[in-house]
Specification:
The complex is a heterodimer of chains A (about 110) and B (about 475). Chain A has about 110 residues and is mainly alpha-helical. In chain A, about 30% of the residues lie in helices and about 5% in strands. Chain A contains three helices and two strands, in the order αααββ. Chain A is flat, with a radius of gyration of 23 Å. Chain B has about 475 residues and is of the alpha/beta class. Chain B has one domain (about 10-470): Amidase signature (AS) enzymes, CATH 3.90.1300. An eleven-stranded mixed beta sheet of chain B has the order 1-3-2-4-6-5-10-11-9-7-8, sandwiched between helices. The two termini of chain B are about 15 Å apart. The chains are: A mainly alpha (about 110), B alpha/beta (about 475).
């Protein structure tokens, strides 16, 4: 495994954070692929970057004084609201027009 | 056969005006063409033929009642189009080519979808792509891989695979695409059509399945640069539903279209023509450069010194944003659960989650954003000296199915010439410029200053006036 690679426990931790189930067979493969990527992107670690890092969401060129980000008015437009039936129309599990969620506590 | 030759918006509009054919006749003809040939190409995931016929009849009535004036109010009146399946279409299944959304029917439409409809366009259906927009070949669709209409053993490029294949096949005059790391420009090059990635924020992202929100750009594919300019004049503009959409007025893209390239300065980034790039690709693009020089353009070499860090920075920023955007798919409000994600999405979610996790976020995400700033500054410097940059789109000509699927990193390197433009949020335009010995399309890309799509159209149109590559179509 590459130096900067991930070990099994790290892959399991990442899968847990990402809410992805991962089988033991898949862990080995994910470990291999992630390690290869992490190793590859490591080549940028020596680049000297300016501080503060990541000024990024929109470049200055785009966001000039004329093009400032405009938020819309904080008002409810009822013509754009979904009805309860519409809002739940794509849910697999419903009860009395409400979304059903998995139980949080085990019996 | 009612409509003959290449399916361009201008030609269709002329035909409608001169009553050479009706909108319904064109729509019927295209529906039959799709039925006949798309089985071997797989560009469509959903067809909306009945709706399209109904709408076509309505448009024909409108033209009969109001005459030519209706075309001024509705610049895409009667034009047959199709949407990449990442664009939400009210009442029409939208899957992102992913099993997670295989039964999802949106309750509202994307702003771009509404804009096409309001301009009079007729939607023929929804187009295949790499699931969630993740891929450079089209092979990551969870349903079926789109094939390159020029040679079905080859990939059409991705992620807007169906969008490029549909325009190349003459199924639709324009299609929508998304471009987060090259997903519109790349397949356009592989299929021999024109593909625009607008400046970030020029076109609203509202209602499009999000991939990486700081780079997602809503583009489109057409057969000519002229058509591309016309479509952008419809899709561009501020949208109150997308706070990052730009409020600057939309210029008249037609105004300078015919101005030619005399005196314009074109920069060739030397890092985009180096050893790692296929020789045939370079020779072909250099021939295109000479054509523009003959038209009076001035050409000089420029440098984008941080090019070698583009893929590392792009894959960290993109996967981080992907992991965050795909976190919403919990299978409760819509879609299947997270178990329905397939390999490529899982890979990107995992890499992004790791890059953002405690103990690693400065090393990966923070560093990648810092490198991104340097990449952006490279472009600002280069574009300070010239009007536009010109470069190959893909480091290789189209490749065969399966050639890169075993090695994700090899596939990721396909984006090496396109992803920097997304990191820098600039506009880019793919223009077809010839063929390989095996008759597979090649293209070059133009890269412009922020919000300067007009210059891209001007240069691209001048090239198409001087050449006829864009008129070549595959035999299906």
């Amino acid at each position: 495994m590459a130096k900067s690679g991930l070990d099994k426990a790290q892959v399991e931790h990442v899968a847990k954070l990402a809410s992805l189930d991962i089988s033991s067979k898949d862990i080995t493969k994910a470990q291999e692929e992630l390690s290869k990527m992490v190793d590859y992107v490591g080549k940028m670690s020596n680049v000297k970057v300016h501080s503060p890092r990541g000024d990024a969401f929109m470049s200055n060129q785009i966001q000039s004084s004329k093009n400032t980000i405009k938020a819309r008015a904080d008002k409810v437009d009822s013509s754009e609201c979904l009805s309860q039936d519409e809002a739940t129309s794509n849910a697999k599990n419903k009860h009395d027009g409400l979304f059903m969620v998995p139980p949080i506590f085990k019996e | 056969m009612i409509f003959k030759g290449n399916l361009t918006i201008n030609k269709l509009r002329d035909g409608f005006l001169k009553k050479e054919f009706s909108v319904r006749e064109v729509v019927d003809q295209l529906i039959s063409r799709i039925e006949k040939y798309d089985g071997g190409i797989n560009s469509f995931l959903t067809k909306t033929s009945d709706e399209a016929r109904k709408k076509a009849d309505g448009v024909d009535k409108k033209i009969a009642n109001s005459g030519e004036d209706v075309f001024r109010e509705s610049p895409l009146l009667g034009i047959p189009i199709a949407h990449k399946d990442l664009f939400l279409t009210k009442g029409v299944k939208t899957t992102a080519a992913s099993k997670v959304l295989e039964n999802y029917t949106p309750q509202y439409s994307a702003t771009v979808v509404d804009k096409f409809a309001n301009a009079g366009a007729i939607t023929l259906g929804k187009l295949n792509c790499d699931a969630w927009g993740h891929g450079a070949s089209g092979e990551n669709s969870d349903f079926k891989a789109t094939k390159n209409p020029w040679n079905k053993d080859y990939v059409p490029g991705g992620s807007s695979s169906g969008s490029a294949a549909a325009v190349a096949s003459g199924f639709a005059a324009a299609t929508t695409g998304t471009d987060t790391g090259g997903s519109t420009r790349f397949p356009a090059s592989f299929c021999g059509v024109v593909g625009l990635k607008p400046t970030y924020g020029r076109v609203s992202r509202y209602g499009v399945v999000a991939m990486a929100s700081s780079m997602d750009s809503m583009g489109h594919l057409t057969q000519t640069v002229e058509d591309s300019a016309l479509v952008l004049s419809v899709t561009a503009g501020h949208d109150e539903h997308d706070a990052t959409s730009i409020s600057a007025p939309v210029p008249d893209y037609k105004k300078d279209l015919e101005s030619g390239v005399k005196g314009l300065k074109i920069g060739l980034p030397k890092e985009y023509f180096n050893k790692g790039i296929d020789e045939d690709v370079i020779t072909n693009v250099r021939t295109a450069v000479r054509t523009l020089e003959e038209q009076g353009a001035k050409v000089e070499e420029v440098s984008l010194p941080h090019t070698e860090y583009v893929i590392p920075a792009y894959y960290i920023v993109m996967s981080s944003e992907v992991s965050s955007n795909l976190a919403r798919y919990d299978g409760i409000r819509y879609g299947q659960g997270r178990g329905a994600f397939t390999n490529e999405a899982r890979r990107r979610i995992m890499l992004g989650t790791h890059s953002l996790s405690s103990g690693y976020k400065d090393k990966y995400y923070g560093q990648a954003e810092g490198v991104r700033t340097l990449i952006r500054q490279d472009f600002e410097k280069a574009l300070g000296k010239v009007d536009v940059l010109l470069a190959p789109v893909s480091p290789t000509p189209p490749f065969k199915f399966g050639e890169r699927t075993d090695d994700p990193l090899k596939m990721y390197l396909s984006d090496i010439l396109t992803a920097a433009v997304n990191l820098a949020q600039l506009p880019g335009l793919t223009v077809p410029c010839g063929f390989t010995k095996n008759n597979l399309p090649l293209g070059f890309q133009l890269i412009g200053k922020a919000l300067d799509e007009a210059t891209l159209f001007r240069v691209g149109h001048a090239y198409q006036e001087a050449t006829d590559w864009h008129t070549k179509r595959p035999k299906l």
